[in-house]
Amino acid sequence: MKFMGIWPDERGFANASSYKVLFPIGFMFLFITLPQTTNLYFIWGDFELIVENLSVGNMTTTIAILKTATFWSNGRSMKVLLSHMENDRKEATAEENVRKMTRIADISRRITAGSIIMCNFVAGTYVTFRTLLLPYTGRVLYYRAYFPYDTGIFPKFELTLIGQITAALYVANSYTAVDTFMTMLMLHVCGQISCLRKKLSKLCCESNNNFRIDLARIVEKYDMLNRYAETIEDRFNGMLLIQMLSCTVQLCVQSYQAISALVDDDQGLLAVRLFFFGIYTTYVMLHIYLYCYVGQKLFSEGAKMAYAAYDCSWYNLSPSEARCLTIIMCRAQISSRITAGKFCSFNHELFGKILKTSMGYLSVLYAMKTKDDD
To answer: Which residues cross the membrane (predicted)?
Structure first.
């Protein structure tokens, strides 16, 4: 993220690192998004070429640019959240809490490492296959696009390919970095709420003479964690809405290309196309599931706060103290959520709906394809 200029640092006109992000955005926009979008004008009417344009690079790159710009513009807010994470780690004194935070950090590290390896594998696989096909396809760009110069001559062709490869690497890493970073933040919130729940369940013992003081600390911490999650929700819900809609369309057009490979007479590249379709679809679905998983976990952990207040030994408290727990239970019913543009919450149900919608669109595209062939 530092290499791409999107690590959450303070922004300033005199700080050179503030403008480093323009380099990857420029490569992605000038070598893929702008040329492919312009090329749509020239290929309009050819459904196969339009599907290839949208599925291979245009939509993915546009999403990556949007995510990079959105994350960079909210760098200060992300830095505040990172400082809260650091403070939480310093304040953790109980061995159980330290062990839980370490486990969550390890899970986040594995998710990040696995996603980076997979995204670079997808980009590397696509570039390798297209390079091996150059002797058969001729001097064809990796991403079919319109450039205001002749890309078929030396050295313009080679320089354009280098630019597209660089842009593809920026797309893969920026797309992944934002998703895994937000996943790390949300898993941290879930872990902190879990620790608070255990504190709340042990709050009502008979020997606790500082009930109100301890309860006030739990409420303040819980309120801070909710603001933490709401900050992520407010800053990124619009970006997530566009990403979810685009990913759904991408799955449809990728599936259409796979169907085309199965029904076309030319089966020479069937294995190659199906292999790339498989790894690319897996990559996209895993990133969608990451958001659905952490969204479901955030809501579940927040709702469990109400059960923790109910399951504690509230019968040892005075009526006025027990009423304080009732207020916490009511507040916990309004658990924090991560949404796509405020339209829907990320959870397992949404993931199932995305799969169902994708399959519905796929059936329509398949009908269109078989009709055209007939």
So the answer is: 21-44, 56-75, 111-133, 153-172, 240-259, 271-294
DSSP 18: G
Alpha-helical (H) ranges within 17-94 are: 22-28, 34-43, 47-53, 59-73, 75-91
Q: Per-residue pLDDT for the chain (374 aa), expressed as one digit of tens each?
A: 887 888 887 666 667 667 888 899 999 999 999 999 999 999 888 877 888 888 778 888 999 999 999 998 888 888 888 888 888 888 877 788 888 888 988 998 999 899 889 888 888 888 888 888 788 778 888 888 999 988 888 888 999 999 999 999 999 899 899 999 999 999 999 888 888 888 888 776 655 567 778 888 888 888 888 889 899 999 899 999 888 888 878 877 777 777 777 666 555 566 777 777 788 888 888 888 999 999 999 888 888 888 887 777 777 777 877 787 888 888 777 778 888 888 888 988 888 887 777 666 666 666 665 665 55
pTM for this structure? 0.86
Distance CA 74, CA 85 (A): 17
- The 3-class secondary structure across 100-145, one letter per residue, is HHHHHHHHHHHHHHHHHHHHHHHHHHHHHHHHHHHHHHCCCCCCCC
SS3 category, 6: coil
Residues ≥6 apart with Cβ < 8 Å to 163: 27, 30, 31
Q: Which residues contact 226 (CB under 8 A, 6 or more apart)?
A: 302, 336
Burial string for 262-282 (b: 16+ CB within 10 Å, else e) reads eeeeeeeeeeebeebbeebbe
